[in-house]
Amino acid sequence: FSLRRRIQLAPGATARVSFVTLMARTRDELLAVADRYRDESLFERTAAQAWTRSQVQLHHLGIGRDEAHLFQRLATRLLYIDPLLRAPRALLQRNPRGPRALWGHGISGDRPIVLLQVEEGESRDIARQLLHAQNYWRTKGLVVDLVFLNEQTPSYQQDTQESLEALGRASQAAGGGPHPETRGGIFVLKGSQIEPEDLRLLMTAARVVLHSGAGTLAE
Question: Which of 68, 84, 119, 135 makes an SS bond possible with 213, Cβ 3.0 to 4.6 Å?
């Protein structure tokens, strides 16, 4: 009912309607703020200021507008589970372990998890993009853990491990240091050193499971 507005238009005329979501501590405060935003010029000015702030923030993070939209779409999958980006149902049903088993890998299980399975081929680009996404989500109040599961063959695994760990350290330094409770954790794990039960648990706990060999993050 609160989003209903009746408008009469003459033939050929147009009208513009703006819906604003507001939040306040009390009902009286909320009504006062809502009354302010009935002023169309105030709404336009506030919207322009918000756009400017967002552009400055994206520039500071080194993120383009299209990339920000991509991160927003991925965030939706973290907040509202999308079966297409989770582990297969059969694997989920075979996991007998609870979140506490993640502690052995330093993962609390308290925050949403994005799991990237690093397979054969180039993985730095998608890993770097996910680290940018983590920093972007943090500015919006969404704290996410990233888990990079290194499943490269033994001849490439150590080089890949060192490369991913270096990316993680650089991202933490840019984001204010390793404080998982406020910025999210970054975990680089070797697939060859993880028990099958722990792997099933990781796949089950992750709200988004990605494969480096499946293309770009957008793909």
Answer: 119
Bridge partners, 96 (sequence order): none
Is the full-model pTM beyond 0.85? no
Torsion of CA 169, 173, 176, 177, to 10 degrees: 40
Residue with tokens 């009935």: 38
Tokens at 9, concatenated: 């238009």
Token digits for 54?
């967002």
Least confident of 100-109, 123-132, 198-207: 100-109
Nearest to 148 by CA among 107, 111, 179, 89: 107
What type of residue sits at position 15?
Answer: A
Residues 20, 135, 133, 207, CA torsion sign: negative
105 burial level (CB within 10 Å; 0-12, 13-18, 19+):
middle
Looking at per-residue pLDDT, the higher value among 92 and 206 belongs to 206
Looking at per-residue confidence, does 203 or 180 come out higher?
203
First to last CA, the chain: 39
- Residue listed under structure tokens 């994005």: 114
